[in-house]
Amino acid sequence: MTQNNRRSARIGRTMSWLALAAIATGAVAQTVPDQQVPETNLNIPTNLQIFGKLDPNVRKPTAIVNDTVITGTDVDQRLALTVFNNGGRGPAAEQVDEFKLQILRQLIDETLEIQEAKTAEITVTAAELDQSEAGLAKRFNMTVPQLRVALRKAGSSERSLRRAIEGELAWSRYLRRKIEPFVNVGDEEVSAIQKRIEASRGTEEYNLREIYLSANDANRAEVFAKAKQIIGEIQKAQQPFELFARNYSEASTRGVGGDLGWIRLVTLPQPLADAAQQMQVGQVAGPIETPGGFSILYLTDKRTIGAADPRDARLSLKQLTVGFPAGTTQAQAQVRAATFAKTVQSIQGCGTVEKVAATIGAEVVDNDSVRIRDLPPQLQEILLKLQVGQATPPFGSPTEGVRALVLCGRDDAQQSAVPGAAQIQGQLEQQRVNLRAQSKLRDLRRDAVIEYR
């Protein structure tokens, strides 16, 4: 395999938490109060402050990083952008100040990354930012102007979004130019891993997320206590683990919510492998001591290597939905749900769905390729037991109405093959790039001149 082929096969650094896919979670999330601003073409921050009569645009800085100013408004808008990215799920009121401190640290790192990229003559053009912003709007089924209005309503701004995009693109390009060319994985190493994977058929692999906190001999006890505090906040706050990873983790996976992807225990440091092996899906574990610090793990899923997983089956579904009028009480919702449930029971195969739906004014939506694994855990267990033509029990809420899914077909999953050499090599290269990137960022922090105000 040539070096170019290896590079093209590498699993690239996920561009950022700006992928902005809705995070599925069974928890009831709290939201930050909506701080709307007038829908104008002026990019006015929600917490505008005037600090002088001669220049109303002067804002008090929170930090100055090598002559680059980071303001309190920057912090507030980035926090609002993070909440927007999480579908409106934000920190509890008592956690806002702590999250702002984490956002400030993130902005400092981002500033250092952009500055270092510029010293390497790496810049991100306005056209590239426009293209990324347009792609982001498309993922939300919005136009760019609509996305900007939505950001302003959420308390953020186009400027904050484009700055985040610039930071991700600049640092990613810096890594590709300055670090990736010096990372190599030998064919013998790849072959050895393939053999170990083949020998591990029938064992499990894990989809993990991680929060990593660096520590040394001087601050180890303090960092351990901080990790314990974070775990307590995760368990108490009922917010997605990703939000905490983006605000607390010091690993390069911070930008993707701490996502480590699907990994096998043989690829993990032994302390993490031992912990993951004892975890159940949805469980948080830690603090786990590792070389250089502590880790907090969250297990989102697991599967058996080389075996067909029933949850990878793809389903053909029809969804029936009946909405509730505004102001519907819980009691009224239960009555309507009971009527809906009785009607759904009369469905005799998918061919009768539209006719039955018409009798109760229900909307019908088809989806012919849904993985069981991608549905909420409660629905996964139900659909695994359904036969074609059967419907789930009703589900929903007084605000969103009541729904039911009818199973119209199932394509069972096939046995998974051992990953190819290119995939393994890409994963190993990416891990080593991430380690060097962390080391580089630590150097930048150590050498930076940072003035707090």
TrEMBL record:
Superkingdom of the source species: Bacteria
Protein name: Parvulin-like PPIase
Residues annotated as domain PpiC: 203-301
Signal peptide segment: 1-29
SUPFAM superfamilies: FKBP-like, Triger factor/SurA peptide-binding domain-like
PROSITE patterns xref list: PPIC_PPIASE_2 (PS50198)
Record InterPro entries: OMP_Chaperone_SurA, PPIase_dom_sf, PPIase_PpiC, SurA_N, Trigger_fact/SurA_dom_sf
Molecular-function annotations in GO: peptidyl-prolyl cis-trans isomerase activity
